[in-house]
Amino acid sequence: MSDKPSRLYQFRVFIRGISPAIWRRILLYENHTLADLHHTLQIAFDWSDEFMHQFLIRGRSYSIWHTLGTNTDKEASEVSLSSLCLHKHERFLYEYNFFVWWQVEIRLEAQLPFNNRHSYPYCQGGKRAGPPENCGGPREYIHLRDDVYHPVFVFDRVRELLEDTDDDETLHDRIHNEFPDLWYWANAPQFDCKACNMRLKQYTDGDDSWRGLMI
Description:
The protein starts with 6 loop residues before the first strand and ends in an 11-residue tail after the last helix. It has an eight-stranded mixed sheet. 30% of the residues lie in helices and 24% in strands. By secondary structure, the protein is of the alpha+beta class. The protein folds into two domains: 7-129 and 190-211, MM3350-like (Structural Genomics Hypothetical 15.5 Kd Protein In mrcA-pckA Intergenic Region, Chain A), CATH 3.10.290.30; 138-185, no CATH class.
């Protein structure tokens, strides 16, 4: 960022198609770019940035150009938030992983006076862990949450496996094979805002270790 910012942009973002909502409240400087917002969203939802993405704003698309190419209208790193002239409560979309098509709705909640209370981008809060980026999209996420990894179903199935084996190591392997993402789903109701902000600080400082996942 070359010019000193005078305002902060406060956004509320949530993933469409999932209830209860998976959401975050994030703050960026007005002269942060859409590329900064992209990376902030990747960190906030604990995604890996392995798939294509685009912002859809007033009928135009913006993304960080990848080697695979994209039909985007403009490179996201060249577009500052202030240059978009967003209005309070204006909404736009961020789409990610075009195989399953995650859609994140972004709403500008407020423009706030500049302050250096935190390093920015900064996450002020949120609910629930971000969905596994390659789980199949919102419908499959809900299916996995409510059916496959529902605590009652998992408990009953583990009890069946327990009755069917005498070897603890074999039982461990069988549970792992049947429920490979059990750790994620056991923690899915939680969002670690502190860990998110640690990674955002690494991003701000140019420390590439921010790319590691929280879970």
